[in-house]
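pasting input
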Amino acid sequence: MSDKTALTPATHTAPPAKFSHGVRKGNILQVAGQVGFLPHEEGKAPTPAGPGLREQTLQTLANVKAILEEGGAGWDDVMMIRVYLTDVGHFAEMNEIYNAYFEEQALTQPPAARTTVYVGLPAGLLVEIDALAVLS
Amino acid sequence: MSDKTALTPATHTAPPAKFSHGVRKGNILQVAGQVGFLPHEEGKAPTPAGPGLREQTLQTLANVKAILEEGGAGWDDVMMIRVYLTDVGHFAEMNEIYNAYFEEQALTQPPAARTTVYVGLPAGLLVEIDALAVLS
Amino acid sequence: MSDKTALTPATHTAPPAKFSHGVRKGNILQVAGQVGFLPHEEGKAPTPAGPGLREQTLQTLANVKAILEEGGAGWDDVMMIRVYLTDVGHFAEMNEIYNAYFEEQALTQPPAARTTVYVGLPAGLLVEIDALAVLS
């Protein structure tokens, strides 16, 4: 039967704890919660793409995409995107950024379902996103 | 290979952002986070079923069900229900409403697993629910 | 086609509401949100394993594992673990406990993906965990 494969894109560190950035088993691919950290540089601590929602959201989406691609998938395969924000006041702006981003991705399949809720995140982080994909 | 289908019941607006109310691909169906908005009326803004937990929970469950049915599924196919409340004090009442609702649905399969957590939601909304189904 | 089976380990009560502690259908197994309650004793109310993060996290993981095993699965089959904490200040300690726990589990497959967010939980509970598994 099919094995579970860990997905660790070149842009990501080895995971800092006993979890995988993403896993694929058969046609199911799960992306772990991503935040807006810039691509990993050897010897540097994880650094957010910027203090604002725009930079962090775009970087977070890029990080999710890198994991999808590492597993042979893309946005078209994503069934569910979970968006965690820290501030209800960020919803409208996140939607604008999200919509513009997905316009550019030129999806050929319907967009994923989504749930957005407002939670606590570590200091300095405004957004976290995870994703579940089903490959064709 | 199987395509991803967007599920947009007649009761729902076209999604306000680049996401789907639900998607189905093969035997997997994911319902996006639903809230207690009444069925869409042309030219009217989304309106919660009421200010209270009961009306909102029942409407939210009806909205989830509409998406399941649009995808050829029903509550019996649901594996996981995520319930987001805004107030720990609402847990007991939500459970009562939830139990009575599912009694009425006359499930022929075991009920779904569930996780309930307490988060922030946009002003006026007390509950959000999403669901993952696996069709037979 | 395959039926949905409710997973109720001997350590668990009958669920207190119309949900299952876990369900399996075909090769998909979903574990409901678990907390750090000790194994059920007839006539006693649910009791956390202790007031602290360590006891609760370890008990919660044991509770998830019991449900996986009831469904014929184990940690190696888990694709996604969702960790809900109540305090951002608990992240480092949770990671230590989590890593040590999974070292001991002697996984033969890559660890699951994970999302950790900070939410409200009922009084006295510091952690809740759910899991999605795909069996081979």
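fyi Chain C has a mean pLDDT of 96.
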